[in-house]
From TrEMBL:
Domain of life: Bacteria
Record-linked Gene3D superfamilies: HAD superfamily/HAD-like, Putative phosphatase, domain 2
Protein name: 2-haloacid dehalogenase
Organism: Desemzia incerta
InterPro entries named among the record's database cross-references: HAD-like_sf, HAD-SF_hydro_IA, HAD-SF_hydro_IA_YjjG/PynA, HAD_2, HAD_sf, PGP-like_dom2, Pyrimidine_5'-ntase_YjjG
Length: 230
């Protein structure tokens, strides 16, 4: 087992339960604009949103294109005359209040902090949202630094996202770094792009990837993976 010192954590659906936060925020938006709360309506929004984020990760659209168009595209599917940008602002307000954590997230971070690991957030998303959610969840103080795509100007898996992190922290020994996340297309591919090891967090055990160095289904497995025992 390599000796890792710098642990880079994704946030959404790795430490913070974004799925729960997203669902609650969407319910509030749907209620505001009289959209039926059905499995179809949730799936329609998520499909549009996922496609836009995928395009952003590939570098074919700008971040603003997601926030300016996703609800406009969604309401178009339902033939509703709604200001998409207004809906986005409302949604963002609801999203900022979501702070539910993934099982064992705080327990893991507490254990790692006591063992003097350097802990960083390496996440795509908006600064104000991620910082507020970390604060409200009680996780913020476990981190030595935060690297959020909106603030640094690059999205995972762009190598420049990680290069900015390395430069800021004066990290020259990349073998001491470990990326931990749930996304094959941003976290694991991003780690591969800069040749650092990675952990794929796959609680449902439905993903398959030879690109990840390790795969886990429970966050506490990271502690054992690092050779720390119980």
């Amino acid at each position: 087992m390599k000796k890792y010192k710098h642990l880079i954590f994704d946030l959404d659906n790795t430490l913070l339960d974004f799925n729960d936060t997203e669902e609650q925020a969407l319910k509030n938006v749907f209620k505001t604009f009289n959209v039926p709360e059905t499995a179809e309506s949730f799936d329609t929004y998520k499909s549009i949103n996922k496609s836009l984020w995928s395009s952003l990760e590939k570098g074919t659209i700008a971040r603003e294109d997601i926030f300016n168009t996703r609800f406009a595209l969604f309401f178009k599917e339902y033939n509703l005359d709604v200001d998409g940008i207004k809906a986005e602002k409302l949604y963002r307000g609801f999203l900022n209040n979501g702070c539910k954590t993934i099982k064992n997230a705080e327990v893991l971070l507490s254990k790692l902090k006591k063992r003097n690991y350097r802990i960083y957030a390496g996440t795509n998303g908006m600064g104000i949202t991620q910082r507020k959610r970390l604060t409200d969840s009680g996780l913020l103080n476990y981190f030595d630094d935060l690297f959020i795509s909106e603030e640094i100007g690059y999205e995972k898996p762009d190598p420049r996202f990680f290069d900015t992190l390395f430069d800021s922290l004066h990290i020259t020994d990349k073998e001491s770094c470990l990326m931990i996340g749930d996304s094959l297309s941003s976290d694991i591919l991003g780690a591969k792009n800069v040749e650092i090891d990675s952990v794929l967090y796959d609680p449902e055990q439905i993903l398959s990837s030879s690109a990840a160095t390790y795969t886990i289904s429970d966050l506490l497995q990271i502690y054992s993976l690092l050779g720390e025992g119980k």
